[in-house]
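Q: Got a minute? One more chain.
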Amino acid sequence: MKRLTLILVGVVALTLSASAQQVLGNGQVSGSLESSSIYYTPDKKIERPEDHFGSNNYLKVDYANGRFSAGIQMNAFMPALLGYDAYKDGKKFYLASKYIQWRDKNFEVLVGDIYDQFGNGLIFRSFEDRQLGINNSLEGVRAAYSFGRYVTVKGMYGRPRLYSEYSKTWVRGADLSVSLAEIIKASAITWNIEGSYVNRYQSLDQAPDYLKEYDDSTFNPVTGEMQTYLESFGIKPNLNMYSGRMNFGWNGLTVSGEYVHKSKDLTHPSSTSTTKGWAAIGEVGYNYKTFSVMGTFRALNSMVSMVDIFVPSASAINQCGGNTINYIPALTRQYTYMLTNLNPYQVKANGELGGQIDLCYSYRSKDNRYRYWNFHANFSTFYSLQPLASNGGKRMLYWRDINFDVERQWNKKWKSVLLYSFQDNADKQAHIFVGDVTHKFNRKTSLRFEVQYLLSGDDKSEWDGIHSEGDWVAGLVEFSLAPRWSFYVQDMYNIGQSKTHYYNGGFSYTYNRTRVQLSYGRNRAGYICSGGVCRYSPAYTGVNLVLTSSF
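A: Always. Here it is, folded:
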């Protein structure tokens, strides 16, 4: 049945993509299909999961006709892939989102599932990230109105999605943006003042068993009023969050900032302690011709804002789950190389202080457009917000990354990248070296090599039994025949402790708007992160089939 379903889905996608956008009446139908399936194979070094097969599938269809648009998305987990534990016991096939929308010149209204963000997302962001298994869209209504180019007002109300179900909470919010530059008619600058308000309401009439186990001498929560009992701990039905922002730009200079205040909320799931939260972020950037520099600073405290405060998911502390209505981006460099992503930084939403500086410079040859240099340097570091007694009364270092890379286009055929990164991840240090070389035989054929080495420093602690895995080496060879075919083999080998190969190889084929990728390999356990939000992925060995198509 599973195989038949996948075959039918694939045939539908290929048929639709072959004819591109479909005309329906005076409008057009478009959409996309994404399917990732893994057959887990036996491996002496990695335990095989109980479910030998997993498949995550997403089908999205949209219709647009003038100012009117509508769409739906269907998700199917048959069953969910390893690492998507929140979907293991939920619905296997369900309607993940739907909407109808009307847009006028100055007005728009949407009814259905809302994906939106206020400011930097520190108080509200509803989004979908399939790689992380997150979809916290807001089912409700959103409306926005613009008074020319001077003022934009937006409001929303609905219930957030929590994985495959909707929660019992309600979220409402409003956002205001005022363009001072337009008001004073200063065309040479951009200058906006913005503010947001978000409220989360959750009834306290019902509570999980861990709270019912508490017994007060004057109050029995099992027989008394649960809301009164919870409020004695400072837990209230309403959570209020406020945000003020400013954005300024002039002649290559950009300055922005945001401050957030949050009323008392649980510090983390399965807790009875509450505290107020706040966050401050500032950014200054400048670019001139081929040079640019950007500096960002952030401090925050108790900024875990859960969709449902009664869902016992400790991963929400580090923004590793979908039980959040806000988003805290990681102000660190986002890498694409294997060894640089072995131990990514996870945002400490309960309290951190730090930021990053990013510099870029490009030198282009005036005589040959195929010859250029790109220089890039980055520094990021984060500490605990408060000094810790366990760290000698000093702030604890959570993360530090000092890195730079040089990209050189030698001629039409050869390009190289050299990268170095020093990462200090609280209890682990690593010096990482990467060499990346690409050779183009012609306009369609190319060969790319990667060589990587991770030199591990000694652990600074053995907290919770953490020990260094030692040094790593990695390599990749990729052969491309554009625009159809691509083949690759890669391997990561731990030469320090486990002496284990994490190999992978496969190919992809692209036809029009459809891409099929088949691969086989052993995958290391670890965190998969995207912009500071992470999901833990257990180790596995298997055959992976990925199908993506748009029409």
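A: Residues 203-236 form one domain.
Q: Perfect, thanks.
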